[in-house]
């Protein structure tokens, strides 16, 4: 095999920042690391890129191993390459974030990794530079969600307007006016109001909505500007 002379070899890893929403809070999925160094400590789900894989293929394989889910929204964020980031070998890590419906995940979870959901504002100390990856993913998610309807990837088939507002408020760590938020969301024409209500929180209840998937797919790349001036919320 022909090699470039005088060049050292190093490893490439993929780490996945997996976000979910439980109806009230945005959450982060973490695992207990199963090998040294830092065995038993909290970590993102990750692994090494195999010789026959592209980066995206590796990220999808790693997500599938943990959640059993395929066709999940996933986006590459950044590459971290500090020479000292991994104490064992020189390793570059390509970070991705993924958005999944927690309720789908619960039926497919692999018990092998001791996975657990944590509120995005209260997750434990992570190994290596994984906390930096999480914060980069949060910033990217906020930016994308201010322009595109990306957060609907976190919702179940049916959801209420209060649940949707809880999601946006947790993503931006902010409080939005109820009427203005509802008006802005409904103006996108992405939602279909249902006849039934969720009465778990009050007797009056809140109507369920479903996503108009045709409009969603057609408008996904449109600049909807769902959240004004997102920079001051970051």
Write the layout of secondary structure elements.
Blueprint: E1 11-21, E2 26-32, E3 42-43, E4 45-48, H1 55-67, E5 73-80, E6 91-99, H2 102-106, E7 116-119, H3 130-147, E8 158-160, H4 161-172, H5 178-186, E9 191-198, E10 206-211, H6 213-219
Parallel strand pairs: 1-6
Antiparallel strand pairs: 1-2, 1-4, 2-3, 2-7, 5-6, 8-10, 9-10
Can you describe this structure?
This protein is α+β, with helices and mostly antiparallel strands. The protein has 6 helices and 10 strands. Strands 1, 2, 3, 4, 5, 6 and 7 form a 7-stranded mixed sheet that branches. A 3-stranded antiparallel sheet has the order 8-10-9. The radius of gyration is 20 Å and the shape is elongated.
């Amino acid at each position: 095999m022909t090699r470039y002379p005088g060049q050292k070899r190093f490893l490439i890893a993929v780490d996945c920042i997996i976000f979910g929403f439980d109806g009230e809070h945005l959450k982060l999925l973490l695992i207990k690391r199963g090998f040294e160094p830092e065995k038993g400590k909290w970590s993102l789900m990750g692994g090494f890129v195999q010789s026959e894989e592209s980066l995206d293929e590796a990220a999808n394989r790693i997500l599938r191993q943990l959640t059993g889910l395929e066709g999940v929204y996933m986006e590459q964020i950044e590459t971290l390459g500090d020479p000292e980031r991994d104490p064992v070998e020189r390793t570059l890590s390509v970070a991705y974030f993924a958005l999944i419906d927690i309720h789908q995940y619960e039926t497919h979870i692999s018990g092998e990794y001791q996975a657990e959901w944590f509120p995005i504002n209260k997750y434990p100390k992570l190994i290596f530079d994984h906390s930096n990856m999480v914060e980069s993913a949060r910033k990217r998610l906020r930016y994308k969600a201010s322009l595109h309807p990306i957060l609907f990837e976190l919702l179940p088939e049916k959801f209420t307007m209060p649940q949707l507002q809880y999601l946006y408020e947790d993503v931006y760590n902010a409080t939005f006016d109820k009427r203005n938020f509802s008006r802005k969301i409904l103006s996108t024409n992405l939602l279909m109001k249902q006849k039934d209500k969720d009465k778990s929180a009050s007797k009056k209840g809140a109507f369920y909505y479903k996503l108009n998937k045709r409009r969603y797919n057609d408008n996904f790349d449109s600049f909807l500007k769902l959240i004004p001036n997102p920079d001051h919320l970051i």
